[in-house]
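for the recovery benchmark. tokens below, seq after
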């Protein structure tokens, strides 16, 4: 029995279950360690051999394990081929070793140069396409061979002109090749990004392909024919040659332009004709046509996946925008405005205005570490927890303490949140606040003086037992308060200079008489000019509160 282990970044590995125990987790002393997967526990999952069968057991992992969509418990559960296990970011498929696709092919060491010269034909796509008919050849000499070639190429053109999915296309190509070569056995292998050859289609089993043949086909773009395996001492002794009575064999590259994406291997039994120069020429051209069709299908699949991803991200962006306030609340003595622009389709910044009472409103700004979809998911989680908590109208210190405890229990490894939580009394101008590692807000007094709100606690999501302190400040008539994410102050120009908190403060000083919505519009334009780019390198979030002058 074996495990096919796949990760979200395209990683895949086949592991055969041989020993009595096999473990997976982040810790280095696991049989297979994935230290960079934050959703795995240090010791997450164990496979154990019990009598004559294998079982899987979750080791009380933090995020749990699913076996065929059911939660796996901390007790042995028998597994069988076809089972699918989800652990962290890993997908694990249980397979019978004998049914593994790659078990149909093995590569054996053998020096091609040891073959008798008369038993081997070597050619290439360039040579085949460059061939011309000799003037001395008569039409009668070419009738049979030309008819066969034309018939095979027409059939290939008709079959490959369809819109078969990529997985189905390989069987179509193999059937075309076997029909054209009048052969019974063959296999198609494609070259993956990690250099591994993967079986895509096969008819027959037990193929033993010379490593030298494989290397020449892939590296030198050669098409090779062994016309008679019985003339080669090394080949004649191979088990597959004896077992399947192989007489002749051929390997050609799947070549598109200068790039080889795999190979086609075909062999013939002792009671079928040997492969000839004409055969290898024909199969070389067919393989080229097939490779172009494979690449086209692959690009179509990639494009479809990209379009699906773009559609899903657009929906995620729309959902995320709906989580942010559509507009700022209106109070007689205060002007308020907020703005968020993620640097990617979705982002990890969060801001909100949440009414406590007719006279009180909570002001919130948060920044999740990282960018893109993972940060957006954590931002959504934070927003949901804040919405649940706000019903009790806690003071900022109590609210942040509860949020941190809840988040730290499930926050992925290496992820954290900076957060500023304040409650403003719109009648008196009193502001109570708690800062969990966020950028200190800038307070521009009515006379132009700049203050940075003091007091900062630990970022959220690391330690559940942290308590936070409450601070207080008063907003006088004409004062302007700015809450912001580091995407504003860490914006860099072409000289690699940050805008910085001083640059932001100077900008706000000059525009403190403007309405908050106008200041934010001007600030976004100013930062774009500062960066020399229409887009931002990090999520951009600003929340402004200005008390009206008497």
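predicted aa per position
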């Amino acid at each position: 029995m074996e495990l096919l282990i796949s990760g979200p970044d395209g990683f895949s590995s086949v592991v055969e279950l041989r020993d009595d125990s096999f473990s997976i987790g982040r810790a280095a002393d696991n049989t297979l360690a994935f230290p960079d997967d934050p959703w795995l526990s240090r010791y997450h999952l164990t496979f154990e051999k019990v009598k004559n069968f294998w079982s899987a057991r979750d080791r009380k992992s933090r995020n749990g394990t699913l076996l065929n969509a059911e939660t796996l418990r901390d007790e042995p559960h028998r597994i069988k081929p076809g089972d699918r296990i989800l652990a962290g970011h890993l997908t694990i498929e249980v397979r019978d070793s004998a049914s593994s696709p790659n078990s149909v092919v093995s590569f054996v060491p053998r020096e091609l140069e040891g073959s008798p010269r008369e038993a081997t034909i070597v050619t290439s796509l360039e040579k085949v396409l460059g061939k011309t008919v000799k003037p001395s050849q008569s039409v009668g000499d070419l009738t049979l061979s030309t008819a066969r070639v034309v018939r095979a190429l027409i059939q290939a053109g008709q079959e490959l002109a369809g819109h078969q999915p990529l997985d189905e296309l390989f069987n179509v190509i193999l059937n075309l090749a076997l029909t054209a070569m009048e052969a019974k056995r063959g296999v198609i292998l494609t070259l993956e990004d990690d250099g591994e050859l993967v079986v895509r289609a096969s008819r027959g089993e037990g193929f033993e392909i010379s490593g030298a043949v494989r290397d020449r086909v892939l590296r030198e773009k050669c098409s090779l024919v062994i016309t008679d395996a019985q003339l080669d001492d090394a080949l004649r002794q191979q088990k597959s040659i004896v077992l399947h009575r192989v007489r002749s064999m051929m390997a050609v590259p799947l070549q598109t332009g200068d790039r080889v994406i795999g190979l086609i291997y075909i062999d013939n039994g002792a009671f079928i004709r040997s492969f000839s120069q004409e055969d290898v020429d024909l199969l070389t051209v067919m393989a080229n046509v097939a490779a172009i069709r494979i690449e086209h299908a692959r690009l179509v699949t990639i494009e479809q996946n990209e379009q699906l991803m773009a559609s899903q991200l657009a929906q995620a962006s729309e959902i995320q925008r709906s989580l942010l306030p559509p507009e700022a609340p209106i109070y007689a003595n205060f002007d308020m405005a907020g703005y968020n622009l993620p640097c990617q389709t979705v982002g990890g910044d969060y801001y909100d205005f949440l009414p406590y009472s007719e006279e009180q409103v909570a002001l919130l700004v948060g920044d999740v570490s990282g960018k893109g979809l993972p940060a957006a998911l954590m931002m959504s989680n934070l927003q949901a927890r804040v919405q649940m908590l706000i019903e009790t109208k806690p003071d900022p210190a109590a609210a942040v303490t509860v949020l941190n405890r809840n988040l730290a229990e499930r926050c992925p490894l290496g992820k954290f949140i900076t957060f500023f939580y304040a409650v403003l009394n719109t009648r008196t101008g009193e502001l109570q606040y708690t800062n969990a590692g966020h950028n200190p807000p800038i307070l521009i007094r009515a006379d132009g003086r700049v203050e940075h709100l003091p007091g900062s606690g630990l970022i959220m999501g690391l330690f559940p037992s942290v308590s936070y302190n409450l601070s207080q400040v008063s907003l006088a008539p004409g004062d302007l308060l700015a809450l912001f994410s580091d995407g504003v102050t860490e914006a860099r120009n072409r000289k690699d200079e940050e805008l910085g908190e001083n640059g932001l403060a100077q900008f706000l000083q000059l525009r403190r008489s403007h309405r908050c919505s106008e200041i934010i519009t001007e600030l976004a334009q100013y930062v774009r000019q500062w960066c020399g780019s229409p887009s931002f390198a990090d999520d951009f979030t600003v929340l402004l509160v200005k008390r009206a002058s008497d």
